[in-house]
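pinging the channel bc i need a second pair of eyes. not urgent but kinda urgent?? the chain im working w is below, pasted from the shared doc
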Amino acid sequence: MTDEINKTFEQLWEEAEKLTTSKYHNASHEKLIKELTAAITKYQKINELGTSDFVSSLKTVIVGELLFILSAITHKDNINIYPTLQAQILLNGV
C-alpha cells in the first residue's frame, strides 16, 4: 500500500494510459471526445445540485473520469503531459 501512496502523478498517469489501452482499444478520437463531452455534461449537471459533501464526492468521481479519458487521448497521440502542462502554466502564469 505504501508504494501506491508514493506514486508520482506521472507514474499514476502512465498507469492510467496503460489501462486505457484495453478499455479504449482502437477507439476513435471522435469516440473519446464524445466520452469527454458526456463526462463534462455530467459534471455540469452535478454542479447545479448545489454544495454538499455528496455533491463534492460526485464531482471528485467525475473529475477522475475526465482525467482517465484525457489519459486515453494523450496515450493515443503520444503526448507527454509534463511539458504540455508546464507550457500552459508558463503561458497562463502571472
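so Helices lie at 2-5, 9-23, 29-47, 53-76, 81-92. and The CA atoms of residues 36 and 66 lie 6 Å apart. — does that match what u expected or am i reading it wrong
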